[in-house]
Design goal:
179 residues; 8 strands; two-stranded parallel ribbon; alpha+beta; 4-stranded antiparallel β-sheet
Length: 179
């Protein structure tokens, strides 16, 4: 993959073809306990937007929380290798990013409520709410159903990426992915 030109950009495209430097480590802050099921971090702008989004969902009786946010290059290397060991590289590449190619390393991506297809998050009220409202807070559903040929990854109803309100609105209104 090509190296991402500006890793700090809110709209930096990070995927199988665009990688972050191995030593890229954004400034991140911890999410408070009310917003996560573990001690985890996001870049400050994404952290604030996520908490506002979670609070808005809570006002409608829904609970959204972080299941997995920032991952270093080293952590992603371990995650990816675990999947390769279980299912082989070809299968792992359909749902797990290689080290340097994970949006989690940007500090702008998080898995909401789960990170497993077997949980059927796409059948929940929280998912429906996120699809309709996440863009208002600067987030996009990063790997939507039916866009696998574009994103290179299978549908992940839990994976959201902060791109800022303007970019999120454009993606939402046009049915676009970040690609």
């Amino acid at each position: 993959p090509e190296e991402v030109e500006d890793p700090d950009s809110l709209t930096a495209l990070v995927n199988q073809y665009h990688a972050l430097p191995a030593d890229y480590a954004p400034k991140v802050v911890y999410l408070t306990a009310a917003y996560t099921n573990q001690r985890d971090r996001l870049r400050p702008v994404a952290c604030q937007a996520f908490m506002e989004m979670a609070d808005a969902a809570a006002r409608e009786g829904l609970r959204i929380y972080n299941a997995s946010a920032y991952r270093s290059y080293t952590t992603q290397k371990w995650v990816y290798q675990r999947y390769v060991n279980q299912e082989g590289a070809q299968e792992a590449d359909t749902y797990s990013a290689r080290p340097g190619c994970s949006e989690h390393q940007t500090g702008l991506a998080l898995d909401i409520n789960t990170a497993s297809l077997s949980d059927h998050f796409e059948e929940t009220e929280e998912y429906a709410w996120l699809v309709e409202n996440s863009w208002r807070y600067g987030f996009i559903l990063r790997f939507p159903e039916g866009k696998e040929e574009i994103t290179g990854y299978q549908f992940e109803p839990w994976h959201y990426r902060y791109v800022g309100p303007a970019a999120a609105r454009v993606c939402y209104e046009n049915g676009w992915t970040l690609e």
